[in-house]
Amino acid sequence: MTGLAAVLAEQAPEDVGKSGPLGLLLTVVLLIAVFLLVRSMSTHLKRVPASFDPADRTEQAPDSPAELFEADPGTELLDDLRRAPRAIEPPRRDADRGGDPPGPA
User: Fold this and answer.
1) Number of domains in the chain
2) Containing H/E element for 83?
3) What's the pTM value of the predicted model, to 2 decimals?
4) Backbone angles phi, psi at 27, to 5 degrees
5) pLDDT given for residue 26 in this prediction
6) What pLDDT was estimated at residue 4?
7) Interacting residues of 94 by C-beta distance below 8 A, sequence separation 6+
8) pLDDT digits 0-9 by tens, 7-40
9) Residue 31 domain-assigned (yes or no)
10) Is residue 94 within 8 Å of residue 101, measured between CB atoms?
11) Is 58 part of any domain?
12) What residues have CB less than 8 Å from 102, skipping those under 6 apart?
């Protein structure tokens, strides 16, 4: 600790606040990194399509009037699930359990 204090005490007042060659090197390295990042981003943005909509988007019209009244896909599955027993049942009351109700005996 005393060695650091001695070095700081020996530093001339005219050197305080001036940037050295290490600051210049750091600034140049950061500018090069920013330049490379901007160049990489611009090449990636050039590859992005103008629109993400599918090119073969065509509306399919029904071939016959009977197709207008067909059930939507998955309707049968939804009906089966609605009729199925519940997977999660509400908590049972004590009388339904068949045991003694909790409390003083």
Assistant:
1) 1
2) helix 75-83
3) 0.38
4) -65, -40
5) 94
6) 67
7) 101, 102
8) 666 665 666 667 788 889 999 999 999 999 999 9
9) yes
10) yes
11) no
12) 94
Q: What is the mean pLDDT of residues 40-69?
A: 80
Output the six-digit token pair for 60.
């399919």
Cα–Cα distance, 74 to 81 (Å, whole number): 11
**CB neighbour list of residue 62: distance below 8 Å, 6 or more residues apart:** 68
Q: Which domain holds residue 38?
A: 22-48
Does any domain span residue 44?
yes
d(CA 9, CA 27): 28
CA distances from 38 to 29, 49, 80 (A): 14, 19, 56
Q: Does residue 105 register a pLDDT over 90?
A: no
Would you place residue 83 in the very low, low, confident or very high pLDDT band (cuts 50, 70, 90)? confident
Contacts 24+ apart (CB under 8 A), 8-17: none
Neighbour tally for 29: CB within 10 Å: 10
Residue at 89 is within a domain: no
